[in-house]
Write a sequence for this structure.
């Protein structure tokens, strides 16, 4: 291996690591607020890339119909819950309409826009809106009623949600893979390296989100309120913090990050309905390296994962996935020893 090959592998590793950093950040975000180890994070990535790909063909993405179905189910649940608490028909109807409003508006706009072949940036914004709207609905349907359950129960639910979203992805997108057009086709020369504009966008987006999330949770009152729900849900309620609202907001942010990740990797690789699983697991490895609580450490862990994957694919391409996922074992062992025998409260 000479310097030029090493430089190419280094650039490829950093670019992939930037995407894994986004998914690692989303995993840390969800766990730090809701205590949910959100395995289906990668499905948001696949949904984002494939929704944009279907928009490119001039058809209505299947995710629009799935969004409507989930919104209707969540609205029915909210109407029923509100009626049980208040026995006020008007209040119950308002609760259902509030849940249904945003997904319905996004779906109607997407159905109108799909055959018009709008510019790529507009289609990307619609894709982000569709996938982001899934976040609160997934929390409402799968997690909200179990918010006070143990972490093990929440993990089991995450596994079920993963299989459900993967199966629905196959139903709505089919087994065929798609590759999206690049958002920036420019090629930048840096010595022996030729850096694509898409790689620059990936790295800048990842860096910006890392800084924004760190600032949001460390310096804003709303960010600290979200974290308070994970530390003590009862105490958060007594202080006037809506734990259900915090969960839905957190899942919306995670879905947004997943959608952006899907748009970023769509032009660099062919995405299939089940591609999100492996990508999401690599983000999870990065999150574990950050202890499931530190955004900067998760980002550094993601870059490390990307570099190991890049150089591992050069030396032993058939075993690159094994190498990456084996990384988590010594890290978990070290954290278990370093953390002592602390009991969960």
């Amino acid at each position: 291996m000479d310097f030029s090959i090493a430089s190419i592998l280094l650039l490829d590793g950093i670019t992939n690591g930037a995407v894994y950093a986004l998914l690692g950040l989303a995993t840390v975000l969800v766990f730090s607020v809701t205590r949910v180890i959100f395995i289906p994070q990668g499905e948001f990535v696949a949904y984002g890339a494939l929704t944009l790909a279907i928009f490119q063909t001039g058809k209505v993405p299947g995710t629009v119909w799935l969004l409507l179905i989930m919104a209707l189910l969540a609205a029915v649940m909210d109407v029923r819950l509100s009626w049980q608490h208040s026995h006020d028909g008007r209040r119950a109807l308002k609760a259902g309409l509030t849940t249904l409003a945003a997904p319905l508006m996004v779906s109607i706009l997407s159905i109108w826009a799909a055959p018009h072949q709008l510019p790529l940036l507009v289609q990307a914004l619609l894709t982000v809106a569709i996938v982001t709207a899934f976040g609160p609905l997934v929390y409402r349907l799968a997690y909200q009623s179990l918010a006070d359950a143990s972490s093990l129960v929440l993990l089991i639910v995450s596994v079920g949600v993963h299989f459900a979203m993967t199966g629905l992805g196959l139903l709505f997108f089919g087994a065929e893979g798609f590759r999206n057009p690049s958002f920036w086709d420019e090629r930048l020369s840096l010595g022996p390296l030729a850096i694509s504009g898409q790689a620059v966008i990936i790295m800048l987006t990842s860096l910006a989100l890392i800084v924004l999330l760190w600032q949001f949770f460390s310096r804003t009152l709303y960010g600290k309120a979200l974290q308070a729900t994970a530390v003590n849900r009862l105490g958060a309620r007594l202080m006037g913090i809506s734990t259900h609202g915090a969960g839905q907001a957190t899942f919306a942010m995670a879905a947004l990050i997943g959608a952006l990740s899907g748009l970023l990797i769509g032009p660099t690789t062919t995405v299939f309905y089940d591609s999100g699983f492996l990508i999401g697991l690599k983000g999870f490895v990065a999150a574990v390296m950050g202890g499931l609580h530190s955004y900067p450490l998760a980002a550094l862990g993601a870059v490390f994962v990307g570099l190991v994957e890049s150089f591992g694919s050069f030396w032993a391409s058939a075993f690159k996935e094994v190498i990456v996922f084996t990384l988590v074992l010594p890290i978990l062992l070290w954290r278990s020893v370093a953390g002592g025998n602390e009991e969960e409260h």
